[in-house]
Every structure is written in structure tokens, then in C-alpha cells.
């Protein structure tokens, strides 16, 4: 199983979502979700299918465009906002909407936008760690954060180490799981799954 699918499965499991069926608005198990790196929109589509409200962050207009093209809010029954800005603004944006402590899921899919002219625009360790810490502050009870970390490109391994170091400083109220790719090496992707337990 690839790690993107595993992230979706772990989130579904956490919220008792039957991922084989699309939820309607009444039966949605997730209230507020955030895609911190919307990119091509695949994670946003998954979140929109199971959430009532979704905030999609990305610093690239191209990513917002691709995600908007993939998501049709009417059929998904989800209220979606696109924020063309860095995810280091998560806390400010959540606070502006008065939804602190109500965010059920935050997904990070780090690295760069595939098949773009701007593959040099990658997430960076400083803003990723800031956004992770802000996300942890905003999370609901039993809320979860997934971080898919790519270690094969320039700065990717350092970003993963910085995220890991930041997670090591969290207290007992958090469960942190790490999932490696099949045939893992020092440069293969890693999925980190963070859950608030109290
Ligand atoms: C691997 S792609 C995301 C893939 C996406 N989740 C999907 O399902 O297709 C990583 C994205 O992170 C975005 N990005 C880079 N730095 C960012 C930042 N500081 N805040 C938000 N997005 C950022 C890039 O523009 C790129 O679109």
C-alpha cells in the first residue's frame, strides 16, 4: 500500500469512516479539516468527501487551480475555502474563523508540486515545523495530523529530521506513529501520524 493511501485509511479509521461509501452532509464524520499543502488536490478530495468544512492551503496559484478543478463542492456537500498562502498562517486563519480546538484533521503532503514548472518550490523545514506546531494547537480532542515526508529531494531529509525533533518534544497527550515505505532506505518517504489523546 502506498503511504498516501495509508494516510487516508488511518484518518478513516480514526473517525469510523466507511471509505467505500461517500458520506452525505448529514453523515459526515469530520467537521473541520485542513489540507496544509493542497497541490494536485488528491488529499483535498478525500477530505472534502468526509468533512463539512475544508480549508485548502498552498503557496502556489497553480496548486489552488488544480485542486479547484478536481473538487466540486455541490456534489461533495462540503464548504471549501482556498487560501493561497503558506501553511505557517494556519493558526491566524483558524483564529479568524473562531474554530480553534475544533480542527479534526490536518494533512501535510510535503515536498513539491508534481509536474509543475516550479519543482524548486518545496516546503521548508522552518515553516513546516511552525505549521505543525500551530496545527497541534488547533486540534480537537481525538484530532489527527498526517505528515507525508519525502526524503529524496534537496532538504527533504533535513525537513523530516526537523519534524521528528519537534514531535519528540510533545508530551503524553500525543500518540505518534511512523510508517515506512516497503524496502525503506534513508531516502524513501515516511508517513508520520499524530493523534491527540487527551
Ligand atoms: C507534494 S505537493 C502536495 C500534494 C497534494 N497534497 C495532493 O494530494 O496532490 C506539496 C505542495 O506543497 C506546497 N507548498 C510548499 N510550501 C508551502 C507552504 N509553506 N505552505 C503551503 N503549501 C506549500 C507546494 O506548492 C506543493 O503544491
Report on the structure:
The protein is globular, with a radius of gyration of 16 Å. It has helices at residues 3-14, 42-50, 61-70, 73-76, 90-96, 125-138, 156-168, and strands at 30-35, 51-57, 79-83, 103-109, 139-149, 174-180, 190-196. The longest helix is centred in the middle third of the chain and has 14 residues, at 125-138. Strand 1 (30-35), helix 2 and strand 2 form a beta-alpha-beta unit. 35% of the residues lie in helices and 25% in strands. It has a seven-stranded mixed β-sheet, with helices on both faces. The protein has one domain (3-9, 38-196): 3-Layer(aba) Sandwich (Rossmann fold). The mean pLDDT is 94. Bound molecules: S-adenosylmethionine. S-adenosylmethionine is lined by residues 37-43, 57-60, 63, 86-87, 109, 111-113, 121, 123, 127.
Amino acid at each position: 500500500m502506498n503511504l498516501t493511501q495509508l494516510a487516508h485509511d488511518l484518518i478513516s479509521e480514526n473517525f469510523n469512516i466507511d471509505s467505500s461509501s461517500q458520506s452525505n452532509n448529514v453523515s459526515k464524520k469530520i467537521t473541520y479539516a485542513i489540507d496544509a499543502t493542497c497541490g494536485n488536490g488528491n488529499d483535498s478530495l478525500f477530505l472534502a468527501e468526509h468533512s463539512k468544512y475544508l480549508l485548502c492551503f498552498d503557496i502556489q496559484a497553480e496548486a489552488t487551480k488544480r485542486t479547484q478543478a478536481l473538487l466540486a463542492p455541490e456534489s461533495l456537500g462540503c464548504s471549501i475555502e482556498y487560501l493561497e498562502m503558506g501553511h505557517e498562517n494556519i493558526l491566524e486563519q483558524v483564529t479568524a474563523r473562531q474554530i480553534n480546538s475544533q480542527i479534526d484533521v490536518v494533512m501535510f503532503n510535503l515536498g513539491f508540486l508534481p509536474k509543475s514548472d516550479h519543482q524548486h518550490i518545496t516546503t521548508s523545514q522552518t515553516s513546516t515545523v511552525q505549521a505543525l506546531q500551530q496545527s497541534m494547537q488547533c486540534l480537537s480532542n481525538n484530532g489527527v495530523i498526517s505528515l507525508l515526508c519525502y526524503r529524496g529531494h534537496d532538504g527533504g531529509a533535513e525537513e523530516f529530521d526537523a519534524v521528528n525533533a519537534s514531535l519528540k518534544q510533545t508530551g503524553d497527550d500525543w500518540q505518534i506513529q511512523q510508517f515506512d515505505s516497503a524496502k525503506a532506505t534513508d531516502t524513501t518517504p515516511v508517513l508520520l501520524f499524530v493523534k491527540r489523546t487527551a
